[in-house]
Amino acid sequence: MGFFSEQQHPSEGTIRTIGIPQQWSETPATLRHPAPRLGEHTQELLREYGFGQDEIEDLLQSGGARADTAACSACRFRVCGPAQQVL
Questions:
Q1: What is the 3 state secondary structure string of the chain?
Q2: What is the mean pLDDT of residues 57-64?
Q3: Which of 24, 38, 53, 55 has the least C-beta neighbours within 10 A?
Q4: pLDDT confidence tier of residue 2, bands split at 50, 70 and 90
């Protein structure tokens, strides 16, 4: 594997990304998933840090946090709420 690698991103198409610089014979490294989009995991991370849904909605509405609605359809974690929007 070289320094750069091409990967299929679910919403961006083919992207060029940094590859894995090491190679191991018994446990080869692979790129398992694409980089997250800006705001893709905002709500999940805020929940992990102890924010309640009302606080998260307030942050999104005020512009203090950003969530990416395009990423929600492919999000493999929790289902995003109705307050999630691109600000």
A1: CCCEEEEEECCCEEEEEECCCCCCCCCCCCCCCCCCCCCCCHHHHHHHCCCCHHHHHHHHHHCCCCCCHHHHCCCCCCCCCCCCCCC
A2: 93
A3: 24
A4: low
Band (25; pLDDT cuts 50, 70, 90): confident
For residue 60, count other CB atoms closer than 10 A to its CB. Answer: 22
- Identify the bridge partners of residue 13 per DSSP, sorted by sequence position: 9
Instruction: Write the CB contacts of 1 (distance below 8 Å, at least 6 apart in sequence).
Output: 19, 20, 23, 29
Q: Which among 8, 9, 4 is positioned nearest to 68, based on CA atoms?
A: 9
Global pTM reads 0.54
